[in-house]
Amino acid sequence: MRRVLVLSHTYLQPAHRGKLRALAARGLEVTVVMFTHQNVELQLDWWLSWKHRRMLRRLTGLIAGSDLAGSLVRRDAPKLPIAVIPQLGAVAPHEPQHVPHEGLAIGFVGRLVPQKGLDNLLQALALQRAAKWRLTIVGDGPDRERLEQLATELRLAARVRWTGGLPAEHVANLWPELDVLVLPSRSSNEWRETNGQVLMEAMANEVAVMGTNSGVIPELIGDAGFVVPDGDLQAMAGAVERLSDQATRRGLAQAARARALRLYSDDAIAERTLTFWQQVVK
Questions:
Q1: How far apart (Å, rounded) are the C-alpha atoms in residues 86 and 106?
Q2: Which domain CATH number covers 206?
Q3: Which of 91, 38, 102 is nearest to 64 (CA)?
Q4: What distances in angstroms separate CA 251 from CA 78, 133, 196, 245, 264, one per listed residue?
Q5: pTM for this one?
Q6: Which of 2, 94, 117, 220 sees the fewest Cβ atoms within 10 Å?
């Protein structure tokens, strides 16, 4: 009888080790698969590094949330079957809807914390003060008061709408109103962007996308949007200017939807997941 144990931790926790020993003692075959988003190299001492490599040798396979996360594991376990599969697929409407409006409708969806880089987006938009744009910010968090103050100091307050946190179904209602979704995340030695779900959803809804080169963002966008260096306000402002051109924006939005349908739809994710499990559970 084969048992399957799925781990969602970077390290094999003590409880998991105990479970493995108990199953082995009962003479049961165990397929052990780990899912990881870890895309920053951990600074480990020799003992933890040894335990990490030993844990990888016990795995039957691994699902990585990004190419970057997978590449970190491949260095220590080159023979381990690894599949790069986002945790969730994107819901793609049959016919994306778009509400006519004036100017460039820009959106940000995410938690209001420093890592998300919303302050950089506000400063970049201040460099495009002469352009006709508006910004909708969906999300909440400890940085909201500081960000609202920054928008006021930059004289942008009248062009920014703060919705607070919204349930997923309400976020879905936002896509027809947006031309561009921006994910301006900033990297550090301890963190890179791991969650690109909102990018995939926007792309599937034929919304043009722009993001920084933090973590998972570049591999999700590919050549179907703009990727700018983290913290480069001029590059971000320049991308906004280029996206103000309707023909440019329309071409990128169509490319983004095609990429999302091919790689990130529920059907595409299900097919990749099934292929992986067929490989590791034999």
A1: 25
A2: 3.40.50.2000
A3: 38
A4: 39, 19, 21, 10, 19
A5: 0.88
A6: 94
